[in-house]
Amino acid sequence: MRILLLLLSILLEVDCLRVLRDPVTLSFSNQRNRDFKNQFSISDSPYQWSTEWLANVPVDHFAFANNDTFKLRYFINTKSYEEGGPIFFYTGNEGALEGFALNTGFMWDIAPEFKAAVVFAEHRYYGETWPYPKSLSYNDTRYLGYLSSEQALADFALLIDHLKQNRIPGAANSPVIVFGGSYGGMLSAWMRIKYPHIVHGAIAASAPVFWFFDSGVKEDVYDEIVTRAFVTEGCNFKAIEKAWVGLDNLAQTEEGRAYLNSLFKLEKTRQLQTPGDVNIIKNCVHDVFDTMAMVNYPYESNFMAPLPGWPVAAACKSLSVVAKSDKEAAEGLHAAVNLYYNYTGKAEILCTDPDAALGENNLWPYQACTEMVMPICSSGPPNDFFWNTCPFTAAGWLEECKQLYVSFILHDAHFMVPHAALCPTLQNRASTLLRFYQENSIIHVKIIDQSIFPCSWVVSRKLEIKNVRT
Amino acid sequence: MRILLLLLSILLEVDCLRVLRDPVTLSFSNQRNRDFKNQFSISDSPYQWSTEWLANVPVDHFAFANNDTFKLRYFINTKSYEEGGPIFFYTGNEGALEGFALNTGFMWDIAPEFKAAVVFAEHRYYGETWPYPKSLSYNDTRYLGYLSSEQALADFALLIDHLKQNRIPGAANSPVIVFGGSYGGMLSAWMRIKYPHIVHGAIAASAPVFWFFDSGVKEDVYDEIVTRAFVTEGCNFKAIEKAWVGLDNLAQTEEGRAYLNSLFKLEKTRQLQTPGDVNIIKNCVHDVFDTMAMVNYPYESNFMAPLPGWPVAAACKSLSVVAKSDKEAAEGLHAAVNLYYNYTGKAEILCTDPDAALGENNLWPYQACTEMVMPICSSGPPNDFFWNTCPFTAAGWLEECKQLYVSFILHDAHFMVPHAALCPTLQNRASTLLRFYQENSIIHVKIIDQSIFPCSWVVSRKLEIKNVRT
């Protein structure tokens, strides 16, 4: 996602485009993250599964104009399952399924106690679940147009039916508890609402279910939380606020730009040529801050990038005092970027390149442009230590989306139709129907694995287990 | 609908096809019913409205492959509305909207007390709400394929949003109560479930929400209720059971067939030629029984046909004793048919012809074949006084649907995909979420107009009003 934004800032020189990111969901946008089996060390994981496929899934669940079908990938483990036990079902996110199966230890950990079957379902158009070949899908909404949350929920409903009727003996009457984090958590919550006869409970971790227009969520709250997380961990608000000025100053001169190109190890095709190009670096740093807050786990992790425990605190070591020079300010910011991109010490370039081809990176932006229009921007001090990109408007968003997609979606320029009225913003929903969790700064934390949790979280997990039981 | 079945019995000589009817929802399948303005005497009605249209409704709410839009018709009356009052919203059925607006007096009657706006929304592909021209739609699922309950619900959600945001001043925070009878009641119930943030309450009258596979509804219960209604009103079970034999006997000879053709005033192209053709009449009578039970209102009415008050009792006058001859038996059945088709005394043919063209009659069967697969059959005595057409199976249903649609749906023969897993059968739904009403034998009775209600029903209506209030 950040790659995409950098590309856009090159093309358009408008940095407000960074809001096209999905700051609370996963993006495996870096080339180094492409090899999931390597990244997540599946063979070493204590969590093991069979990979299976549900055939004959309708591309379109809600009309009969297109009767194509496809195969949906899912992972399953019935080792702990006993007849009548529950099905723990992960509603897959906007990414390949492996990362979620390996990082949702909560389901694995409690399955034996509940004698539960564990299933992870892949979201259509991500990972290996493609209704149409990628080459077609990336060229035309006639093929990509079936990427939507409603269709994905219907996929999951069909899969659950298949599991209960055919795949898991004795499960016909098993209760189904859905789990999900972030966008996957939104899907879990919506599964419980939209398919109450199929799903009996939902654990939605870090799921911004309310993050739509007119639902009372502040558009600048995300960076407010990011800022708080960094300041709490030792970053100096003023240091960061002033560091942007340092970058701007350096970018004014050829010598300064050469320094930044070298410091941030920008690849050749994307090095700063003009003062305005400094947005490439500013957006990169902003993106690193936003992402690092999400994965500020207390232990060494490898969810969105290899990182040490408490990475925010580590990044803040170089940002605890106001720099004495522009270069010193730039170095402080670079330290954070380098930690995120280069914890292993092997990266030759940072703020990694976008793919030459328009790869899977663009799928979440597509969803963000067509249905998941989640208002987000930075308003700058005192709310956050970034710069002002507010207000977030539907018209502005639509304009950005058009610029983003006109180049590769050929079929119809009018596909961006935010369906705000159809989004389940849930304002009037009885609170007993489902439970929400919105973490301050750490994503998926309620459902990741148990062994490495500090005590305080284990307590809340016990409460969670009790909820699953009731 | 009955017309369609008669056509089929000619073509296929299988009378089990009668189950393609929608026995609990409305069909305006007779030519005499086509002129709604005349039929329902709109100009004389105490209920008056403005006809309006919602533009730019997406043909497909759940994908971006097809970005066509259409205009949705609705009726609105805000005379009683005061700012902040509720919106009473009728979720239109499988037929032109006029009949529902004129026969849902409950909404009109209580609107002044609640200071409510009254809105009736037309279901896509019925009445005057056509996403594509009929000529295209009847030839190809690429155009007809967007006829589905899910799409219709999304239409209504958009319209409610439009009403609240733009059309009705001061209604932004107005509660919305949806009303519907029969299929419209199913839609109301599903609106409350699927769009809980938009719809605050639902009154679903005579809505067979549970009438799907595996939901515990007996497949032969409908004709059991019909039989009970007729026997209660004076019909003799044995008389009707034996009358079918009388028809069969008469149909064996040319003379007997001539007698039946004349008695039942069958039009020339559909007169009995062989003994098997007797199914034309048997299905016609069966259909009249099933329909008349639904409209067994205690007052003269004109909902599905012009009829006297208590029409079932009227029909049973000729069916109270076992006939002494085949002809007498036939005459007893004819009396019921004649009452239904010819209460006005002007009909020249009964068991009316199907349209030459495949008209709107075929839309509900299309829905019944694609998503509304509601198990229904007759098992004969002692359950009912018809003949055995059970069991109802998905495979048999699919076969019938294929025979029905292969002749005019050219695009794809595989469009019949009952989505049982996606239907909200609601087995495990909390009862507080919505309220169900399944009348024994009278349809829409809870929501029709107040002035002509006998006391016992007014009592239950008062309870209903209380529910609307809370």
From TrEMBL, chains A, B:
GO terms for biological process: proteolysis. The keyword Ribosomal protein does not apply. GO terms for molecular function: dipeptidyl-peptidase activity; serine-type exopeptidase activity. Keywords: Glycoprotein, Hydrolase, Protease, Signal. The keyword Signal applies. InterPro entries: AB_hydrolase_fold, Peptidase_S28. Residues 1-16 form the signal peptide. It comes from the Eukaryota. Belongs to the peptidase S28 family. This is Prolylcarboxypeptidase. The lineage of its organism: Eukaryota, Metazoa, Ecdysozoa, Nematoda, Chromadorea.
